[in-house]
Structures are given as C-alpha cells and as structure tokens.
Design brief:
Layout: E1 11-13, E2 19-21, H1 26-50, H2 57-88, H3 91-97, H4 99-116, H5 129-205, H6 210-230, E3 235-237, H7 238-256, E4 260-266, E5 274-276, H8 281-290, E6 299-308, E7 311-319, H9 335-348, E8 353-360, E9 363-371, E10 382-383, E11 386-387
Parallel strand pairs: 4-6
Antiparallel strand pairs: 1-2, 3-5, 6-7, 7-9, 8-9, 10-11
Helix pairs in contact: 1-2, 2-4, 2-5, 4-5, 5-6, 5-9, 6-7
C-alpha cells in the first residue's frame, strides 16, 4: 500500500466551500439542456410532417433550442444560488417553499421567450406582446411546471449523490490514514528490535575481536542512516532492499567469520519492483538468530527473488537445527516475523502468502509471494531511499 490521497475526480471546491460536480459546470449543464431542446425540436418537426404540416426545421430548432437554453440558465442559477438549501432542507419544506418560486420562474421564462419570438405562434393574426404572453402561458403552463420541478428534483438528487461520494471519499481517506499509522507503528517496533539484536552481536565480539566489533559498529551506523533517511517510506525498489540486506550480511560475516557461505540470486527484471521496506532483512535476521547461530561450521544461506507470472517470490533457505529441534519460537512468532506478517497483511491483504517450512532436519525455508508491481509515477513519490 503506497501512501496516497484520494481526491474526487468528478467534483471541485467552489468559493462557497461546497463541492461542484463536473456536470454542474455552466457550459456542460446548459449544453445538455440545449441538446435536450434539439431532440424535442426534431421530434416535433417529424410529427408535424407526418400530420401534413410543413414548418421549417430551423424554426423548430431555434424556438425549442432557445426555450431549453433559457431553462438551462435558470436551472443553473437556481442550483448556484439555492443549491445548498435545496440539498439540505427537508423534502416537504422544499416543495412548499418552492411553489411561489416555480410560478415566478415559469412566468419569467415565458416573458423572455415571447419577447424573442414575436412571430410565434405561426398561422395566427399578429398579436400584441401581452396577448401572446397570455396565449403561451395558457398553452405551456403544465409543461413549464413539469420542467421546473424536474430541475428541482435533479438538484436534490445531485445533492444525495454528491454527499454519498464525499462520504465514501472520507471513509477511504480515514482507512488509508489508519493503515499508514499502523504501518508506521510496526516500523517503529521493528527498528528497535533490529538494533537490539545488532548491538547484542557487537557486544559479544567486543570480548574476542575488537576490530571486527568496530567494523560492525560502522556498518550498523550505515544501516541506521539509511533507515532514518527512509523516514516513513513504505515501498522501495527491490534493489534498495538488497543493498540494505548486503550491508547486514557483511555485519554477520564479521561476527561468524568463515562459518557460513551465502548466495544471493535475484531475477534482473525485479530490481525495480516495489516491495515493502525491510521485508527481507527480518527473514535473514531470523535465519541467523534461530538457525545459523546454532551451528559451528559449514552453514549455508540462500536468498532468492524470482518472477512468477504477476507475482514476485522471495525464498530464504538456511541451515541450522531445523524447526523440530528449535525451542525458541520455531513457528515464526518472534517479533521480527510477527511484525512482517502484520505489515504484509496491511499492504496486500489476502493477495500475498507467507510460509515457513522445514525442508529437512537441518534446513528451513521461508517463502513469501507478493503481487508484482513497479513504480508507475502516479500516486507515489520517490525519495532518496524509496517511495512514499
């Protein structure tokens, strides 16, 4: 899981502090109304031709387009000025309070439209403005009222939809913040555990090899510097994790001298794959603490990463006393492994797997399978030591 923020893609903040859906942009909204008027004009023109009337298509398009243009502007102004009230007030109060407004709006619409079309209706004697207004009011009052109340209910419906989307966005933001807080807490738990084990190893070397202990202390300082520069970064390229592990292995080489041979095999295609920070180090540390540290010679350690379809598979195999003979948390419930399991669950949920298996009486294998993902440049931010 990469740290990100969810921003609604279909809305923006207005100066009034509430969200404006993309549909309510004035050009988009009025354009839809004009398109609707065009469709009505085509329908009426076809019907009139079928009934034997010959009226030009341009007249129909002009009159219907203008009428719905006026309705589009009025409806947008209604949403802009009274939108928050319509969306928040009770339905009963909205309906009762809008009756006078509906009458005034329908009257204003007809007054503008009649003024713009002095030659309509066709095939009738020339009439004065007020006579034509009365004629059109009588003919269109039901239609105008239906359009007004449909606009009102549309604004109301947009409010419900908008509120639902914002609630979902808020819930998603809170979920991400909670997950990041849990991951940060786990990282804070892991670093002291790693530091304690490393200092314990340095302390044991101080009695036998001061130079080796000094080298280990310098390497530990390097690891801590990297850890601090990563800050709260959760996802890093695999190559960075391998670099971190190799410094840690160099520390262990000083401690265990020539008792252990190790091999690392990484698929070249995976160097840029994104993985949770410090996913391999706790497994390798566990291999030393519960396996390799218990044998006197001829120890072996293998660390591998292979690509399998859309997954990345990590394998760590180490020699030691095996699980059956290991009395100290043999099933992977120590701090490091328990921490790792929790982090994997937060990052991937059920999309990952983790298993510890005894291959034979002296070898244990840890296998981790994760979804394969690469940095895509969206929703993530590179830092010097990783992605956040």
């Amino acid at each position: 899981m990469q740290e990100s923020s969810l921003q609604p893609t279909t809305a923006r903040k207005t100066g009034q502090g509430w969200t404006q859906p993309f549909l309510m942009h004035p050009l988009v909204f009025v354009g839809i109304w004009v398109l609707l008027g065009t469709l009505f004009a085509l329908q009426e023109w076809l019907n009139l031709r079928r009934w034997g009337y010959h009226i030009g298509l341009a007249v129909e398009l002009e009159s219907w387009g203008t009428e719905f243009l006026i309705w589009g502007v009025f409806s947008w102004l209604l949403w802009r000025t009274l939108g928050s009230f319509i969306q928040s007030v009770s339905l009963g109060r909205m309906l009762s309070g809008s009756i006078p407004l509906s009458v005034m709006t329908c009257l204003a619409k007809e007054m503008i439209w009649v003024l713009l079309f002095p030659n309509l209706p066709l095939n009738r004697p020339q009439m004065q403005y007020w006579t034509r207004l009365q004629f059109h009011l009588t003919a269109d009052v039901v239609e105008d009222m239906v359009i007004f109340w449909c606009s009102l209910l549309l604004i109301r419906g947009l409010g419900y939809y908008q509120s639902s989307r914002e609630s979902e966005s808020t819930a998603a933001q809170l979920e991400i913040q909670l997950a990041n807080a849990r991951l940060s807490a786990l990282r804070m738990q892991l670093n002291p555990h790693f530091l304690f084990n490393a200092m314990n190893g340095i302390s044991s070397l101080m009695r036998t090899d001061v130079d080796a202990a000094d080298d280990m202390l310098e390497q530990l300082s390097s690891l801590l510097r990297i850890s601090l520069e990563r800050r709260s970064v959760q996802m890093i390229p695999l190559r960075d994790e391998i670099d971190f592990v190799e410094v840690y292995l160099s520390m262990q080489d000083r401690r265990y001298a020539e008792r252990i041979s190790r091999r690392i095999s990484i698929d070249p295609e995976l160097h840029d794959a994104l993985i949770p920070a410090m996913i391999l180090q706790p497994i390798v540390e566990n291999a030393y603490v519960h396996g390799l540290s218990r044998i006197e010679k001829d120890g072996d350690l293998f660390i591998g990463a292979q690509k399998a379809n859309h997954s990345i598979i990590f394998t760590v195999v180490n020699s030691g006393v095996g699980l059956a003979n290991n009395s100290e948390k043999p099933t992977g419930h120590g701090v490091g492994i328990t921490n790792l399991r929790s982090r994997l669950a937060l990052h991937y949920g059920e999309a990952c797997s983790f298993e510890i298996l005894e291959i034979d009486s002296s070898h244990v294998r840890v296998r981790v399978e994760l979804p394969l993902q690469y940095f895509d440049g969206q929703g993530t931010q590179f830092t010097r030591y990783g992605v956040e």
